[in-house]
Amino acid sequence: MIQLVRIDDRLLHGQVAYSWKAELGYEAIVIVSNSAAEDNIRKAAIKMAKPDGVKLAIRNEEEAVALLKNSKLEALNVFVVVDSIQTADYVLRALDQKVKLNIGGIQKADNKEPLASFAYVTNDDKQMLRDLEADGFDIEFKLVPSDKPKKLTELDK
Predict the structure, then answer these.
(1) Taking Cα atoms as reference points, which of 143, 118, 154, 112 lies closest to residue 13?
(2) Which residue windows are coiled coil (predicted)?
(3) Which among 41, 64, 65, 130 could disulfide-bond with 94, CB atoms 3.0 to 4.6 Å apart, if both were Cys?
């Protein structure tokens, strides 16, 4: 069962791997990133951040959706980490269940503005998030489980 979809453009690193493991008790991580799926060095770095005893899959968007819809995954607690709002939108809309979306770190770029101190977005990103929320997806902004979650409506002013 998918417990959470998280956006973090760094994908899997110590903070994500261990703080969320304690919170969710996940048994498997599915990393969804077209670029990481093709980059052997990046895949090796991600594998090093994985907690012991946790299954890990690094897939492009299409392969990830097929994997997440596989009935064998229903018996596992699964944590999904994606690298962008666009990827999250693709994955969430392809699933058969409404999964909570957690927005973690999205780095600053020239065409982005802060929606939260740790999440920089474009106007298109904001609209995509608004559309997801309007379609019934629960969206929260927080870096680590102990942070107080903020809702899109609080930040999107």
Answers:
(1) 143
(2) none
(3) 65
Q: What is residue 57's three-state secondary structure?
A: strand
User: Residue 157: how many CB atoms within 10 A of its CB?
Assistant: 5
Q: Burial of 42 by CB count in 10 Å (0-12 exposed, 13-18 middle, 19+ buried)?
A: middle
CATH fold group of domain 2-155: Fructose Permease (3.40.35)
Q: What mean pLDDT value characterizes the chain?
A: 95
pTM exceeds 0.70, yes or no = yes
- Name the nearest CA neighbour of 86 among 117, 124, 59: 124
E strand spans, 37-118: 55-59, 78-82, 101-103, 113-116
Q: Domain spans of the chain?
A: 2-155
